[in-house]
Write a structure and sequence with these properties.
Elements: E1 3-7, H1 9-13, H2 17-25, E2 31-35, H3 36-48, H4 55-58, H5 68-83, H6 88-99, H7 109-116, E3 120-123, H8 139-158, E4 165-169
Parallel strand pairs: 1-2, 1-4, 2-3
Helix pairs in contact: 2-7, 3-6, 5-6, 5-8, 6-7
Length: about 170
């Protein structure tokens, strides 16, 4: 039966991706649905072994969301994914396959799911996540890839008609 995990940003930011990867590899997670924040934290962990910002420390002086590499690479993935008619989760996993730091690649749920052919859907709200402030942000590409993921999630949930589990492990 399907086991779909819905994830918020703090689940990944707090370092639980390796636990979810283990559950996926043992068959206790057949798909993941994450918000934009979860995808960003996971993306950064794959690149640098940690998230780029302590929100509480950088928000007051206006530096929140200014990590150049995250904005550039995350948006590049969305744009490439859009040109190939794939969803954002798949696009991010594919991009990480090419650019993840080998020292941290094993901590990325997006990359592990990509390698395992496990669906990951990313559900973005435009203007709520840090890559949207980057000059390379393409709202159309972000919207279309996230919408493809929404449709995939609908298909995955419809397949639960004969049973399954949806676990909401939100922030």
């Amino acid at each position: 039966k399907p086991v779909i995990w819905g994830l918020g940003g703090h689940v990944i930011k707090c370092g639980l991706a390796p636990v979810l990867i283990d559950l996926m590899q043992r068959g206790f997670a057949t798909a993941f649905a994450m918000n934009g924040a979860a995808s960003i934290h996971d993306f950064e962990i794959a690149l640098a072994g940690q998230t780029s910002e302590d929100v509480e420390a950088v928000l007051p002086d206006g530096r929140f969301g200014s990590a150049e590499e995250t904005g550039r690479e995350w948006n590049q993935a969305a744009i490439l994914g859009d040109s190939e008619d794939i969803g954002l989760g798949e696009a991010l996993g594919r991009r990480l396959e090419a650019i993840a730091d080998p020292r941290f690649a094993g901590q990325s749920l997006l990359l592990a799911a990509w390698r395992n052919s496990t669906p990951v859907t990313v559900h973005v709200a435009i203007g709520t996540d840090t890559p949207h402030t980057h000059p390379d942000a393409d709202g159309g590409a972000i919207g279309r890839t996230s919408h493809r993921d929404f449709r995939l999630l609908c298909t995955l949930v419809a397949a639960m008609d004969r049973g399954g589990v949806y676990i909401n492990a939100g922030s």
